[in-house]
Specification:
The chain is mainly beta and about 350 residues long. About 0% of the residues lie in helices and about 40% in strands. Strands 14, 15, 17, 19, 20, 21, 24 and 25 form an eight-stranded antiparallel beta sheet that branches.
Length: about 350
């Protein structure tokens, strides 16, 4: 399947400034829409998203947990509201891990304001913005711009001044961003380790070139490994964890509802590419953003969360290609250390 949506975003914001006061102007073990970031000025796709104003991409708030007994007396826990007439209890679940985000902030200066990008990810973000409307605004900067904002950093983008110092100013803008540097070049020092326990093997339900749902550039070279829920997932390569989602516990086939509900770990490699491990089991993730992981480290357990038709692990390596995430072909270590590229129907053994 395609993969869960990756962090990226778009936003729009309007500001009116006067003096120092602000007034807001298919088949088992296959994934559907499970990775990447689609970046465009338009809308999003968990691969890349445009953001309007101070938006955080795919950042979701607290979930609601519903608990009830079905007709057989079995206790059910779900994040979907039970049918009408069903007695239930509910409570809010606060996300257990603080995920990264990108915001555009405003810092007041004499006679105007400075637009500042704030990136809280442990990875650079490729940011583009445009002023869409202005009133009483003077600036020497172009109306559009782009910038690579370093990890965990604030970056000044442009200064805007009141053309008439005695009148308020108003401006609107849109911005978009995608994780990773556009200069990233896939250059691993060795073939990847298969992302499950050594000496074990699991069937491949989807892999290039036999694409079923991995039709977009972000997931074209992804692998779907069919494995039971709770199977240990191991890091395929060294890197730094840059995004984690761990609070979802169900799967479904509605792309709009289930697409953002995949538990994931995203790891930034030394060459600027990123690995995505998706559909992980609820509350099994052992790493946090900013943590360095080593090749072979147990980072989570496999599951069946998000837009998925059955238990499996979705694994893909991606890079930022001019403002969109694209997947890259990879090789795994095979028998005797020789590199192998599994195909659908294979059962590669982890070495």
């Amino acid at each position: 399947m395609a993969a869960p949506r990756a962090p990226s975003g778009r936003g729009r914001r309007s500001r009116r400034l006067s003096g120092t006061r602000h007034a807001p102007g298919r088949g088992a073990g296959s994934c559907r829409r499970c990775d990447g970031l689609r970046i465009a000025w338009l809308v999003r796709s968990l691969l890349v998203i445009a953001v309007v104003g101070t938006v955080t991409g795919e950042r979701l708030g607290a979930q609601t947990l519903y608990q009830y007994r079905d007709e057989n007396g079995v206790l059910v826990f779900t994040d979907r509201r039970p049918p009408d007439g069903q007695a239930f209890e509910e409570r809010e679940l606060v996300p257990s891990i603080e995920r990264g985000q990108v915001q555009l902030m405003h810092r007041e200066i004499d006679g105007g304001t400075v637009l500042v990008a704030r990136n809280t990810y442990y990875a650079p973000v490729d940011l583009a913005w445009v002023l869409t409307a202005t009133e009483n605004v003077r600036t020497d900067a172009p109306a559009t711009g782009s910038r690579l904002v370093p990890a965990r950093a604030d970056e000044e983008l442009m200064a805007l001044y009141r053309a008439d110092p005695g009148s308020p100013m108003r401006f609107e803008y849109e911005f978009r961003y995608v994780l990773g540097s556009p200069d990233a070049v896939h250059a691993p020092e060795e073939a990847y380790r298969l992302p499950y326990p050594l000496a074990s093997s699991y069937p491949v339900s989807q892999a290039f070139p036999d694409v079923v749902t991995h039709a977009d550039p972000a997931s074209r070279y992804a692998f779907d490994f069919v494995m039971p829920v709770g199977t240990a997932v191991h890091a395929a390569r060294d890197g730094i964890v840059i995004d984690v989602a761990s609070d979802y516990y169900e799967a479904g086939l509605d792309p709009n509802v289930d697409g953002p509900r995949a538990n994931i770990v995203r790891v930034l490699h030394g060459d600027g590419t990123m690995a995505l491990y998706a559909h992980l089991n609820w509350n099994s993730i052992r790493v946090v953003p900013g943590q360095r992981v080593r090749r072979g480290e147990h980072i989570a357990d496999s599951g069946n969360t998000g837009f998925s038709s059955g238990p499996h692990l979705h694994f893909v390596v991606q890079r930022n290609d001019g403002g969109r995430l694209v997947s890259v072909p990879i090789e795994f270590v095979g028998p005797g250390g020789a590199p192998v590229t599994p195909r659908r129907g294979d059962r590669p053994v982890a070495h």
